[in-house]
Design a protein that fits this description.
By secondary structure, this protein is of the alpha+beta class. 30% of the residues lie in helices and 33% in strands. The chain is built from 8 helices and 14 strands. It is elongated and about 70 Å long.
């Protein structure tokens, strides 16, 4: 068998390249949106016309949810105009299509520390992702490698800021939901206590959380309804976790990117039939929250 030949990878800059220009890059992202690392996305539009504001490079959408990404691509370093354009296009799209959850995405070959600091200031009020893209030449082929350098700021629930003023009790939830779904929350608490026996249910006005010695520990929360229980698990979104949920047979809702939670409708019997799977999911959330 002949010896394998080593070819040294080389980073190339697309800005100023005679062939690999911005249009070429847009086409590659449009063909394979997943390379951005934002999940399984589909291309909705390219060079999308914006009234009195130019054209949006790429509009991507999550195939399973109502989340859209307004993507602006720039070769070379980020600059002020690039950031302003990305935010402007995001704002136009969210106003035109409020039924979707929108995120502005900046893709550049070099997200400088100066502009990363500027972008970070916006990130508290604007859902914004910054991705640094590298083109790597290996022999006669070119690969694209993306690194997320700034993610959307994860927001807590609005309710979490109101816990002190809005603490309720079990009777409140039994009247609002049912004793049956409260019992399901108790069964979930048993799984949680396998991780930390000091955790207790904390009855708030809008949801039931967890607390340890009166300190909130909301890596999972519960929203009981009359006939079912909504479990919300705080986890970073990943293709692996989504695939596991899809294969579980549970009723999985859209991922809530603003609070960073997977949401699952648990019907009667699910807490016992899916005990092992739910325990593993909760364990992962517990470990991420540590």
């Amino acid at each position: 068998m002949s010896a394998l030949k080593y070819v040294k990878p080389e980073r190339i800059w697309l800005k100023g390249h005679p062939e690999l220009n911005e249009r070429w890059l847009q086409s590659r992202i449009g063909e394979t949106p997943a390379l951005l690392g934002l999940g399984e996305l589909v291309l909705k539009d390219r060079e999308r016309f914006q009234p009195r504001a130019g054209r949006l490079d790429l509009l991507l959408q999550d195939a399973e949810t109502n989340k859209r990404y307004e993507v602006e691509v720039q070769l070379g370093k980020t600059d002020e105009a690039h950031i302003i354009r990305a935010i402007e296009y995001w704002d136009i799209e969210r106003k035109r299509y409020p039924q979707y959850d929108h995120t502005a995405v900046i893709v550049a070959e070099d997200v400088t520390s100066r502009f990363l600091n500027v972008i970070s200031l916006f990130n508290g009020s604007i859902p914004l992702v910054a991705i640094q893209l590298s083109a790597i030449r290996l022999g006669d082929t070119v690969s694209l490698v993306c690194s997320k350098v700034l993610d959307e700021m994860r927001f807590g629930l609005v309710d979490e800021d109101e816990e002190i003023q809005a603490v309720t009790n079990r009777s409140y939830w039994e009247a609002r939901a049912s004793k049956h779904t409260l019992a399901m929350a108790d069964e979930m608490l048993d799984l949680v206590r396998a991780l930390d026996p000091d955790l207790e249910l904390k009855y708030n006005k809008f949801y039931i959380g967890l607390a340890k010695r009166d300190e909130p520990r909301n890596f999972v929360i519960f929203r009981p309804k009359k006939d079912w229980l909504r479990l919300e698990v705080r986890l970073d979104r990943s293709d692996e976790t989504q695939a596991q949920l899809n294969d579980s047979g549970l009723d999985v809702m859209d991922y809530d990117s603003r609070s960073g939670r997977y949401r699952i409708r648990l019907a009667r019997g699910d807490t016992m039939k899916q005990k092992d799977f739910l325990a593993a999911l909760i364990t992962k959330a517990f470990e991420e929250s540590a």
